[in-house]
Write a structure and sequence with these properties.
Blueprint lengths: L2 H12 L1 H7 L6 H15 L1 E4 L2 E4 L2 E6 L1 H8 L4 H17 L1 E3 L4 E6 L8 E6 L5 E9 L2 E4 L4 E5 L6 E2 L10 E5 L4 E5 L6 E3 L2 E3 L1 E3 L4 E5 L2 E11 L9
Parallel strand pairs: 2-4, 3-5, 9-10
Antiparallel strand pairs: 1-2, 3-6, 7-8, 7-17, 9-11, 11-12, 12-15, 13-14, 13-16, 16-17
InterPro entries: Cell_Proc_Reg/RNA_Proc, FHA_dom, FhaA_N, FhaA_N_sf, SMAD_FHA_dom_sf
Organism: Microbacterium ginsengiterrae
Pfam families: FHA (PF00498), FhaA_N (PF12401)
């Protein structure tokens, strides 16, 4: 099995459950993975005998319909693309000039079933955004205190009868995050353990009732990266 086969089969296994239900037509997740991999290979540049630099910013442009279908996977797809491209770069001896950034965007000019990838290098222009993934939707954490619960006045509302109207709050200072239970009736679990408050490193699972919320810190471009090919 070649490296490309391994790369594609790895993504296929990672998203197989959602793939079977969501992607009966149009673009396939594995095609996005292959397109990003090809872009990295094409744009990789030898800068010295022991160093090959590949772009660290990838903007994947999809048709509106394909983009909507991919959004059903929430952050799972971009997380897998990130992990698989990192593994591919390691295998090929590539290095990145900064944190790896992969984003999916809709583009009315792109036909259904096709994918376009723009790549470039971001040096010192990546900021970090806290997000909460709930049932395939990603909610950015844009304030110092974010309340999550069943009530319509919560900042992030979840439709779970086991949650309180204001169940937990997430405190975020731009670098570190903490979860605090707001005296909920049924309590809150962090990574399966019932707690009143807890620090939140990236990829932490918060369970409220029967709902799992995943807290992540993800890179975002502060501005359009220089050298992006359009």
């Amino acid at each position: 099995m070649g490296l490309l086969d391994s790369f594609e089969k790895g993504l296929e296994r990672a998203v197989n459950g959602a793939f079977a239900k969501t992607f009966r037509s149009g673009i396939q997740p594995v095609e996005i993975a292959s397109a990003i991999r090809r872009e990295a290979d094409i744009k990789a540049a030898v800068v010295s005998r022991d160093r090959i630099i590949a772009p660290n910013s990838y903007v994947v442009r999809l048709s509106v319909d394909d983009h909507d279908r991919m959004r059903a996977l929430g952050g799972a797809l971009t997380d897998e693309l990130h992990a698989l491209l990192t593994a591919h770069a390691t295998a090929q001896g590539y290095s990145f000039a900064g944190p790896l950034f992969i984003a999916l965007e809709s583009d009315e000019k792109v036909a259904t079933g096709t994918v376009r990838v723009n790549s470039g290098t971001i040096e010192g222009r990546v900021s970090w955004q806290a997000v909460v993934d709930v049932d395939g939707r990603r909610h950015p954490i844009t304030r110092a205190r974010t309340v999550i619960g069943r009530g319509s006045d919560a900042d992030i509302t979840i439709g779970d009868a086991g949650s309180s109207r204001k169940h937990v709050e997430i405190l975020w200072d731009g670098e570190r995050a903490m979860m605090r239970d707001l005296g909920s009736t049924n309590g809150t679990k962090v990574n399966g353990e019932k707690v009143r408050e807890s620090p939140l490193p990236t990829d932490t699972t918060i369970t409220i009732g029967r709902t799992d919320l995943v807290f992540r810190v993800v890179p975002i471009a502060a501005e359009n990266p220089s050298g992006v090919h359009r």
